[in-house]
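INFO batch 0412 | record 1 of 1 | parsing
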Amino acid sequence: MPFHPIALKGQPLAQGRLPAVCAPLVAATHDALLAQARQVVAARPDLLEWRVDFFQQIGATPAVLAAAGALRQVAQGIPILFTRRSSREGGQAIPLDEAQVVALYQAVCAAEVADLVDFEMANAEADVARVREAARRHGVALVLSFHDFQRTPPAAELVARFAQAAALGADVAKVAVMPAAMADVHALLGATLQASAQLEIPVVSMAMGPLGAVSRLCGGAFGSALTFAVGAAASAPGQMPIADVRAGLAVLARAAGAAGT
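INFO prediction complete | emitting tokens
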């Protein structure tokens, strides 16, 4: 089955390997962000995610843009994903209303200091459209995401979430859920496989927490284009160190190669 890797300006992330490895940055200050980035960059992830909801100066757009520009220099060519995760989907509380969040995304896209932006598809459709327009105008890839930290919805609902992201104009559809049993992980992986077959855009999925750890290693076999791993600090439960994730992915790749011979 032909899966879809994430493409940035026409070039596949991680040379098209699934899943690519993304490491989050969750520092609170400008200097701490750059120090954390230097530590993470040394592990050479395929993508850096700046979780700006952890940033103390998120309410000052010039400070966010300055930090993003400095991060771009420290990243040494590793692409950057800019994310404000809302508190309703597991993020930090911030002193901005949704109109101000949209304006911040528009400013980040216009400054071209990120390669991708992640915006939650549960936001108002008009806000999604504004972020989508800004991203497209400036050549920034748009990830539309859905997170449920309480449960794993039924497989049909998960497939519908992936499809909703595509219908809203996403370049990448992301779904993250919390399993209560291994059957939930199975449902997520099955939904990922189905969405990968049905949609023309890359999909990203993960089951969070200890039960979901397996999805962070084998998700690529079901079509997930990205997995998240810890370079310095985790941004969600169940994330594992980059070295462990790469080792696990290498074992799976070798096994898959041997099976094909």
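INFO post-check: The chain has one domain: 14-255.
INFO record closed
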